[in-house]
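Input record (Table S2, row 344):
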Amino acid sequence: MNLKVVFAGFTIVLAFALSITACSPRDIEEVNIYSSRNEGLIKPLLDQFSEETGIRVNLLTGSGDGLLSRLQNEGRNSPADLFLTVDAGALHRAKESGLFQPVHSDILDNAIPAHLRDSDRLWYGLSMRARPVFYAIDRVNPEEITDYLSLADPKWRGRICVRSSDNVYNQSMVAAMIAHHGEEATEQWARGLVANFARNPVGGDRDQIHAVASGQCDIALANTYYFGGMTLSSDATNQDTVSKVAIAWPAQESQGVHVNVSGIGLLQHASNTDNALKLMDFLAGVEAQAWYAEVNSEYPANPNAPWSEVLEAWGEFKADELPMSALGDNNTAAVRLMDRAGWR
Ligand code: FE
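Output record (fe (iii) ion complex):
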């Protein structure tokens, strides 16, 4: 198969197309990866892998859903060997679409805890992302934030910011709630949460955290790495937000903080299988995992990898150990439930 033909007409990442045009795939060891992770957060690691192994990595980035449908359209003609994406719900969708093949690697099995990978070995988590509560330091006593369930309490009326229900992070969080509390209790909770919204959902996770700082709401649900990005930023608005907002870790007496993963799977139609497996092992290794934590303020999936200074400063917490597969299994129920609860 000629890779040039497969890529004709695509311009998502010009460098990728050009590099494939430049020399024949038979000349060199390579591996092709589709990633919904933006280039800056993965490319330096891939470059290091290439340096250590001599294997060239061709990276194509895009949105998770966009790459998923692209993989489906390309079918067995796809040049991609690996699919890297964020959120267990998205990984589950790729699995259900039959895109992945199982991987047998002792290195991966030892590096990644069982609850952070697919039970059929079709994908492996590479980083852990926590979704706790962010609160306004001057208006909220963190001891008031006990559990996710308590966010439905009328005392929070008009005080909560969270993004819309079409976002997969919220869908996965609600899917986890369903796994822990059942559908009925979760729906009741979602209705109470919606009643407590300070405004109609708008913007992404960063916007919810900024809205706490600017006084539009008192608490917000968001992923921690966005706050990490603000902490490491020299931008005045970010620094202002960081000075006014703090993290409360909910559910410490119960299931633990809701966590999600970014992860990677070997594609069914991979042609560079050996190189792809080497890259998966590399990404799960302590060095790569530590880099990830350092640059993107995500928690390493590999428990042997050190945390960054930012993560250390936020302190340790109990994370939910619900198998990630539950987030995908309950995704459809979660979406319907949020709709019934009026979460737009
Ligand atoms: Fe994100």
